[in-house]
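Quick one:
INPUT:
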């Protein structure tokens, strides 16, 4: 699971704990009698006991006889006791009490009613009823999860109950701001509900009640269950980005988080799409901790206008980014073509398209007049029922059109087209944009799945980059959460990256370290734990490099003692994709123990080796050195993850 949730970043509103037996209570009312006994909606078990005490609350009220009856599920009286029976313990002018009533197992399970009749001169002068349940199962509402954690005014929200019940069924009733909004059985899916938020910002109460049985046909429960939970629901227009979401909003021309609505969250003043309109019936859903809209092959979104940026009839460089969980790529209606249209945005002679091909690969297309420029991914970027985040990048410089594809923040492929000398990314028939352009998302009736986010990252004129530099880091955040220490896909130069040799560079999402040069990565602060380092190389056939780790020791301020120097060529793991092309991965760990530091490889046959370093430290620096005197070292990505320390690791005696 990559995201949390949620959304999932996704975040959770959860209030834990619930008492599933509220046996005794004093009903507060304007009645002349205050009765302390079983509460309305209480859930009891066979052999439980019901005690009864009463207090006369009105001075002029008189009673000379009291009858307590229990009515069974079939409506018949199954138990009766009176004050002149042996059950009478004490009666005074101000009140009294009765012996406990034991619920007999032979009565069975179901909804019961206890009735109190107060007589005076053989006439009933006051009666009171209390409904309760007898069951052999347990019910508990552990928590209620909110997606998103904060709702937009007039937007949608999904609430999911984490329940425990040992019986076969459970009846639920949801109330919002004091009014019932939904009720039904768990088997009918009522443990989750979708609501529409009020138009007014504020904090509202959402309450869930659990009953062991459904009410009688045609009736509703007129009392509360003793098993209930209330959480606050926050409705606010201003919402901050969640970890793992596309951000910052200022760098996106178009941005849809799909947090219960389809409004454009971009802070761009020139964006042409304010909101998407539902096609069919998209509905809120959570899958693998991801919150978004479920599309059932006949549902999607549409809008007038272009989703991509343009100014003065010229297209700006951009990246279309999308996160989805596909359940099905295409249906039998188009199996011959073997493709599913995810996105179309265009008009007449111009459009962009994103398609899933039959083998799960991604195709990006850009059409100008009678020319179509396209790119297919090298690898399958979509797997059914698995989270996928993809990016299609379009840039033009010096009459060269570049198309690139990314998967989960990692570079996949690129292609370049040479354009004519006078060519530029100008919109054909630009005067038709406002009148004819439209954007369609998942509307070809072939996609079934969950859409999480859609964004268009763009060059706003302040920088030359059109690729989101944070996409790789966000993808790793979704995968590893708080365990992630560092991640960089080198989509552009990072401010945290120190290039000690001025000739080191980043090109096409690859860090290029020249011969005899060093790159310093951000330092990290380890505890007694395992730190996993993963480095993906473009070509490992002639690698000659090492990773050097040094500690900022506590006993000598300002000094760095080398912890370990790891030969990267000895830590390479080769994996092969569907294309048969190999991927070179350097994968190893540093184990920070109380008595020293050790190096472990992902190769299970290689034993853990001691580095010889002993001492305390406040931080650890990390450098990669290309020790080749002739060839550059090309790195596609690096990420570092904290892992719990396996105390059973085989430690070498070396």
């Amino acid at each position: 699971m990559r995201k949390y949730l949620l959304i999932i970043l996704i975040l959770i509103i959860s209030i834990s704990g619930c008492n599933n037996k509220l046996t005794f209570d004093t009903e507060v009312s304007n009645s002349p009698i205050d009765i302390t006994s079983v509460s309305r909606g209480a859930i009891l078990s066979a052999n439980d006991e019901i005690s009864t005490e009463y207090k006369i609350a009105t001075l002029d009220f008189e009673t000379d006889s009291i009858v307590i009856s229990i009515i069974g599920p079939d409506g018949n009286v199954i138990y009766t006791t009176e004050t002149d029976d042996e059950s009478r313990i004490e009666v005074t002018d101000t009140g009294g009490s009765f012996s406990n009533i034991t619920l007999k197992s032979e009565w069975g399970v179901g909804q019961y009613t206890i009735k109190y009749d107060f007589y005076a001169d053989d006439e009933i002068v006051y009666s009171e009823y209390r409904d309760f349940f007898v069951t052999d199962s347990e019910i508990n509402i552990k928590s209620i999860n909110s997606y998103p954690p904060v709702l937009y005014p007039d937007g949608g929200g999904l609430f999911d109950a984490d329940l425990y019940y040992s019986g076969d069924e459970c009846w639920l009733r949801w109330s919002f701001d004091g009014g019932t909004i939904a009720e039904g059985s768990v088997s009918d899916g009522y443990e989750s509900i979708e609501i529409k938020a009020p138009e007014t910002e504020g904090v509202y109460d959402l309450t869930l009640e659990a009953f062991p049985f459904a009410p009688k046909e045609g009736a509703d429960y007129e009392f509360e269950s003793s098993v209930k939970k209330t959480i606050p629901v926050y409705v606010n227009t201003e919402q901050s980005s969640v970890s793992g979401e596309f951000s910052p909003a200022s760098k996106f021309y178009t941005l849809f988080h799909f947090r219960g609505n389809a409004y454009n969250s971009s802070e761009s003043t020139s964006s042409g799409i304010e909101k998407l309109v539902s096609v069919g019936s998209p509905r809120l859903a959570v899958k693998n901790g991801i919150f978004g809209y479920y599309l059932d092959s006949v549902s999607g979104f549409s809008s007038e206008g272009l989703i991509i940026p343009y100014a003065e009839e010229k297209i700006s460089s951009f990246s279309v980014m999308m996160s989805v969980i596909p359940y099905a790529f295409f249906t039998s209606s188009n199996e011959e073509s073997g493709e599913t249209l995810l996105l179309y945005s265009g008009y007449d002679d111009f459009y962009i398209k994103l398609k899933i091909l039959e083998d799960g690969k991604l195709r990006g297309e850009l059409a100008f007049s009678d020319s179509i420029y396209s790119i297919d991914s090298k690898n399958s970027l979509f797997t059914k029922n698995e989270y996928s985040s993809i990016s299609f990048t379009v840039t033009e410089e010096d009459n060269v059109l570049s198309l690139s594809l990314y998967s989960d923040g990692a570079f996949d492929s690129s292609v370049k087209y040479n354009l004519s000398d006078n060519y530029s990314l100008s919109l054909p028939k630009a005067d038709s944009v406002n009148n004819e352009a439209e954007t369609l998302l998942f509307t070809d009736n072939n996609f079934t799945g969950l859409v999480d986010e859609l964004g268009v990252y763009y060059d706003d004129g302040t920088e030359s980059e059109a690729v989101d530099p944070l996409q790789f880091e966000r993808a790793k955040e979704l995968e590893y959460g708080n365990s992630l220490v560092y991640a960089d896909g080198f989509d552009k130069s990072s401010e945290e990256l120190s290039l000690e040799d001025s000739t080191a560079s980043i090109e096409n999402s690859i860090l290029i370290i020249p011969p005899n040069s060093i790159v310093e990565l951000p330092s990290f602060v380890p505890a007694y734990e395992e730190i996993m380092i993963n480095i993906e190389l473009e070509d490992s056939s002639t690698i000659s490099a090492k990773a050097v780790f040094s500690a900022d020791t506590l006993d000598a301020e300002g000094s760095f003692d080398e912890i370990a120097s790891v030969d990267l060529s000895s830590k390479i793991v080769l994996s092969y994709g569907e294309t048969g092309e190999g991927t070179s991965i350097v994968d190893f760990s540093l184990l920070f123990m109380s008595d020293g530091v050790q190096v472990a490889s992902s190769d299970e046959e290689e034993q853990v080796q001691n580095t010889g370093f002993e001492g305390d430290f406040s931080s650890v620096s990390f450098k990669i050195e290309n020790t080749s005197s002739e060839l550059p070292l090309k790195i596609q990505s690096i990420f570092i993850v904290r892992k719990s320390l396996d105390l059973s690791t085989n430690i070498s005696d070396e």
